[in-house]
Amino acid sequence: MSEQNKSNASAHEPALRPHTYDGIAEYDARLPNWWLFTLYGAIAFSIVYWMFYHTTGMGLRDEQVLAQRMEVVAEARLASSMGSLTDAELWAMSRDPKFTTAGRAIFNANCTACHLASLRGKAENPAAVGPSLVDAEWIHGGAPGQVRHTIEAGVPEKGMQSWGPVLGDRKVIEVMAYVLSHHKEPAAP
Predict the structure, then answer these.
(1) What is the pLDDT of residue 14?
(2) For residue 110, which of 181, 180, 179 has the smallest C-alpha distance?
(3) So what's the pLDDT on residue 91?
(4) CA dist 71 to 52, 57, 78, 181, Å?
(5) Which residue in 28, 138, 162, 181 could disulfide with 100, CB within 3.0 to 4.6 Å?
Protein backbone atom coordinates (compact mmCIF):
# COMPACT_ATOMS: atom_id res chain seq x y z
CA MET A 1 0.00 0.00 0.00
CA SER A 2 1.37 3.40 -0.88
CA GLU A 3 2.07 6.08 1.67
CA GLN A 4 -0.74 8.26 0.32
CA ASN A 5 -3.31 5.45 0.71
CA LYS A 6 -2.05 4.75 4.25
CA SER A 7 -2.38 8.42 5.21
CA ASN A 8 -5.92 8.60 3.71
CA ALA A 9 -6.96 5.43 5.58
CA SER A 10 -5.52 6.72 8.86
CA ALA A 11 -7.18 10.12 8.35
CA HIS A 12 -10.63 8.46 8.32
CA GLU A 13 -9.89 6.04 11.13
CA PRO A 14 -10.35 7.54 14.61
CA ALA A 15 -7.44 7.61 16.99
CA LEU A 16 -7.15 5.17 19.87
CA ARG A 17 -7.40 6.41 23.43
CA PRO A 18 -4.23 6.06 25.44
CA HIS A 19 -5.66 3.59 27.98
CA THR A 20 -6.52 -0.07 27.53
CA TYR A 21 -8.57 -2.41 29.65
CA ASP A 22 -7.98 -6.11 29.61
CA GLY A 23 -6.06 -5.74 26.38
CA ILE A 24 -8.89 -3.88 24.65
CA ALA A 25 -8.23 -0.42 23.21
CA GLU A 26 -10.99 2.18 22.87
CA TYR A 27 -11.52 4.45 19.90
CA ASP A 28 -11.67 8.19 20.55
CA ALA A 29 -14.78 8.81 18.40
CA ARG A 30 -18.23 10.34 18.69
CA LEU A 31 -21.17 7.92 19.08
CA PRO A 32 -23.14 7.28 15.88
CA ASN A 33 -26.26 9.39 15.35
CA TRP A 34 -28.60 6.37 15.24
CA TRP A 35 -27.37 5.35 18.69
CA LEU A 36 -27.82 8.87 20.09
CA PHE A 37 -31.35 9.15 18.61
CA THR A 38 -32.26 5.80 20.19
CA LEU A 39 -30.97 6.98 23.57
CA TYR A 40 -32.74 10.35 23.44
CA GLY A 41 -35.94 8.69 22.17
CA ALA A 42 -35.90 6.25 25.09
CA ILE A 43 -35.43 9.11 27.55
CA ALA A 44 -38.30 11.10 26.00
CA PHE A 45 -40.54 8.01 25.99
CA SER A 46 -39.83 7.32 29.67
CA ILE A 47 -40.72 10.89 30.62
CA VAL A 48 -44.00 10.79 28.67
CA TYR A 49 -44.81 7.34 30.10
CA TRP A 50 -44.12 8.51 33.65
CA MET A 51 -46.27 11.61 33.19
CA PHE A 52 -49.16 9.67 31.58
CA TYR A 53 -49.34 6.77 34.03
CA HIS A 54 -47.91 8.03 37.30
CA THR A 55 -48.34 11.79 37.48
CA THR A 56 -51.60 12.61 35.71
CA GLY A 57 -53.34 9.29 36.36
CA MET A 58 -54.81 9.28 32.85
CA GLY A 59 -53.56 5.79 31.99
CA LEU A 60 -54.83 2.66 33.70
CA ARG A 61 -52.65 1.39 36.52
CA ASP A 62 -51.71 -2.28 36.70
CA GLU A 63 -54.26 -2.86 39.47
CA GLN A 64 -57.04 -1.42 37.28
CA VAL A 65 -56.03 -3.50 34.26
CA LEU A 66 -55.92 -6.62 36.45
CA ALA A 67 -59.37 -5.86 37.90
CA GLN A 68 -60.81 -5.44 34.39
CA ARG A 69 -59.27 -8.69 33.20
CA MET A 70 -60.48 -10.55 36.29
CA GLU A 71 -64.00 -9.24 35.62
CA VAL A 72 -63.80 -10.55 32.04
CA VAL A 73 -62.70 -13.95 33.38
CA ALA A 74 -65.54 -13.95 35.93
CA GLU A 75 -68.04 -13.05 33.19
CA ALA A 76 -66.75 -15.88 30.99
CA ARG A 77 -66.92 -18.31 33.90
CA LEU A 78 -70.46 -17.18 34.68
CA ALA A 79 -71.51 -17.49 31.04
CA SER A 80 -70.14 -21.03 30.85
CA SER A 81 -71.92 -22.10 34.05
CA MET A 82 -75.29 -20.39 33.52
CA GLY A 83 -77.16 -23.67 33.40
CA SER A 84 -75.57 -25.17 36.50
CA LEU A 85 -75.90 -22.34 39.03
CA THR A 86 -77.09 -23.40 42.46
CA ASP A 87 -79.76 -21.62 44.46
CA ALA A 88 -77.07 -20.27 46.82
CA GLU A 89 -75.20 -18.73 43.87
CA LEU A 90 -78.42 -17.27 42.50
CA TRP A 91 -79.23 -15.75 45.91
CA ALA A 92 -75.72 -14.26 45.99
CA MET A 93 -76.36 -12.68 42.58
CA SER A 94 -79.54 -11.13 43.93
CA ARG A 95 -77.38 -9.25 46.44
CA ASP A 96 -74.92 -8.02 43.82
CA PRO A 97 -75.75 -4.48 42.60
CA LYS A 98 -74.23 -5.24 39.20
CA PHE A 99 -76.88 -7.90 38.55
CA THR A 100 -79.81 -6.13 40.21
CA THR A 101 -79.20 -2.83 38.39
CA ALA A 102 -79.07 -4.59 35.03
CA GLY A 103 -82.09 -6.68 36.03
CA ARG A 104 -84.09 -3.58 36.94
CA ALA A 105 -83.49 -2.08 33.50
CA ILE A 106 -84.56 -5.30 31.78
CA PHE A 107 -87.59 -5.67 34.07
CA ASN A 108 -88.69 -2.09 33.41
CA ALA A 109 -88.37 -2.61 29.65
CA ASN A 110 -90.19 -5.95 29.46
CA CYS A 111 -92.16 -6.82 32.60
CA THR A 112 -93.74 -3.64 33.94
CA ALA A 113 -96.70 -3.89 31.58
CA CYS A 114 -97.97 -6.90 33.56
CA HIS A 115 -96.26 -6.70 36.97
CA LEU A 116 -96.00 -2.87 37.26
CA ALA A 117 -92.80 -1.00 38.12
CA SER A 118 -93.42 -1.59 41.83
CA LEU A 119 -93.51 -5.38 41.22
CA ARG A 120 -96.88 -5.48 43.01
CA GLY A 121 -99.01 -6.34 39.97
CA LYS A 122 -102.66 -7.18 40.85
CA ALA A 123 -102.08 -6.40 44.53
CA GLU A 124 -101.56 -2.73 43.64
CA ASN A 125 -103.85 -2.42 40.65
CA PRO A 126 -106.61 -4.96 39.96
CA ALA A 127 -106.39 -4.10 36.25
CA ALA A 128 -102.81 -5.41 36.14
CA VAL A 129 -102.32 -8.80 34.48
CA GLY A 130 -99.45 -10.28 36.51
CA PRO A 131 -99.36 -11.25 40.16
CA SER A 132 -97.35 -9.48 42.84
CA LEU A 133 -93.68 -10.43 42.90
CA VAL A 134 -92.89 -8.92 46.30
CA ASP A 135 -95.32 -10.75 48.56
CA ALA A 136 -94.57 -13.98 50.41
CA GLU A 137 -96.76 -16.12 48.13
CA TRP A 138 -95.15 -17.72 45.10
CA ILE A 139 -97.54 -19.30 42.63
CA HIS A 140 -94.86 -21.21 40.71
CA GLY A 141 -92.25 -21.66 43.45
CA GLY A 142 -90.04 -19.11 45.18
CA ALA A 143 -86.66 -20.84 45.04
CA PRO A 144 -84.23 -19.03 42.73
CA GLY A 145 -84.13 -21.96 40.31
CA GLN A 146 -87.93 -22.01 40.15
CA VAL A 147 -88.16 -18.26 39.59
CA ARG A 148 -85.56 -18.55 36.85
CA HIS A 149 -87.49 -21.40 35.22
CA THR A 150 -90.73 -19.39 35.36
CA ILE A 151 -89.05 -16.45 33.61
CA GLU A 152 -87.37 -18.69 31.01
CA ALA A 153 -90.29 -20.96 30.18
CA GLY A 154 -93.11 -18.55 30.98
CA VAL A 155 -96.62 -19.60 31.97
CA PRO A 156 -98.43 -19.82 28.64
CA GLU A 157 -101.75 -20.96 30.16
CA LYS A 158 -101.85 -17.73 32.18
CA GLY A 159 -100.59 -15.43 29.44
CA MET A 160 -96.91 -15.09 30.41
CA GLN A 161 -94.69 -15.60 27.41
CA SER A 162 -91.45 -17.55 27.44
CA TRP A 163 -88.69 -14.95 28.00
CA GLY A 164 -85.73 -17.35 27.70
CA PRO A 165 -85.47 -17.22 23.90
CA VAL A 166 -86.05 -13.46 23.87
CA LEU A 167 -83.64 -12.39 26.62
CA GLY A 168 -81.07 -15.17 26.82
CA ASP A 169 -79.59 -16.80 29.94
CA ARG A 170 -77.68 -13.77 31.21
CA LYS A 171 -80.62 -11.37 31.12
CA VAL A 172 -83.01 -13.95 32.58
CA ILE A 173 -80.66 -14.35 35.54
CA GLU A 174 -80.40 -10.56 35.94
CA VAL A 175 -84.20 -10.22 36.02
CA MET A 176 -84.39 -13.09 38.51
CA ALA A 177 -81.73 -11.38 40.64
CA TYR A 178 -83.72 -8.14 40.58
CA VAL A 179 -86.95 -9.87 41.63
CA LEU A 180 -85.20 -11.84 44.39
CA SER A 181 -83.46 -8.69 45.64
CA HIS A 182 -86.85 -7.71 47.08
CA HIS A 183 -86.94 -10.87 49.21
CA LYS A 184 -84.93 -12.29 52.09
CA GLU A 185 -82.95 -15.45 51.58
CA PRO A 186 -84.49 -18.25 53.64
CA ALA A 187 -82.45 -19.61 56.52
CA ALA A 188 -80.47 -22.73 55.71
CA PRO A 189 -82.22 -25.92 56.85
Answers:
(1) 79
(2) 179
(3) 84
(4) 24, 21, 10, 22
(5) 181
62-80 and 169-180 helices, crossing angle to 10°: 100
The residue among 185, 146, 157, 140 whose CA lies nearest residue 131 is: 140
CA–CA gap between residue 173 and residue 42 (Å, rounded): 50
Q: pLDDT digits over 38-75, tens only?
A: 999 999 999 999 998 888 878 888 888 899 999 888 77
One-letter amino acid for residue 93 of the chain: M
Tens of pLDDT, residue by residue over 80-131, are: 666 677 888 888 888 888 888 999 999 999 888 888 888 888 888 888 888 8
Helix ranges (H only) for the chain are: 3-12, 33-50, 62-80, 87-93, 97-110, 112-115, 144-153, 164-167, 169-180
Domains of the chain from N-terminus onward: 3-55 (no CATH), 87-180 (1.10.760.10)
CA–CA dist 160, 84 (Å, integer): 24
